[in-house]
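Review form for a predicted model. The reviewer records the input and the model, then writes brief findings.
Reviewer: anonymous (R2)
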Amino acid sequence: MGSVWTHSLREEMTVRKLKFSLSRPELLLQPQWSISPWAWMLYRLFMVLYTFAWCLYSALLFSSPKWLLFLSHIVYCVMGMYYLLAFCNLAWAAIQVRTFYRSQRTANPEEGSRGYVARAGSVGPFPLPPLLSAALRLQWCLHNLVGSFSITVTLLYWMLVYPIERHPLSAFNINMHVGNSIQALLDLCLSSTPVHLAHYVHLFLAACLYILFALLYWLSGGTNLSKKPYIYKVLDFGGCPLVAAFSVLGVVCICLPLSHFLVWNMCFLRRSIATGARGGSLGLFRERWWWKMGGAMGGSVSLTGIPASLFTPACSGTTQPLLTPRNALQGAISVYL
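Model under review:
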């Protein structure tokens, strides 16, 4: 695995990795493992409800707009936005795929009573609407922010904030500063969303925006919930400017990069296990998963002529082919569902 890891690391050091290139959009929608489509949909929905419930509880607990001053609360709200967008994108893609199979059922009335029966053929490519493509890119960006920032928030809170301020260890506090990382790591382990080291640029920009906000808030005379002239004690630009400067440098240059590197390594380990000899039976068979998402039953799925991606950009006013014609496949190898 060492040589593969080194090769992957070298590949990350390229300019093309900076972009959110949707060469395989399905990776942002499907799980890494052999989880049924509807179980995956329920997981997405549960995480939306769970996260927004804690966000609502947090707002009611503080009863002040100042609760959004804190990085941990901002990151948790962004996590809620990520789960909501991921669920909506998955539901949108599922509707598109099922609409196709429903049209096939209509075209074959004799099969309508027992559902669409899968014929031997290659699945995809399905059309990818421009709006869904943009939503998937935003989902990917939020996934990167949530994963690395959640770990950073947990480390910074227990290393810097808690030893100084000694907040009570309530369920809310534990969820915001431990549960956040557990949720982020769980999603990282289950989903097949790729992680690129070059995307640290986006994390760096987000961190700079928060630091700029904290600085401007201090300059404008803003106070925290305890009426102190700073958001965090370690960001007291007026009382301890040197400590604040070193804290900022430590977060941007050490803690956040290390968190992102950890997230990338976990993504690499997840892919290695799923595609390895031992994890092969647990890994997701892409074509079968989307075949089931469409509600198809029985039949076979061809492994010949499988496109690199199951989705292709859809242009307005044009009709995209949804299934590769059977006569275009030579010597198909079938895998029965």
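Findings: The chain has one domain: 21-113+128-293.
Further findings: The mean pLDDT is 81.
Recommendation: see findings above.
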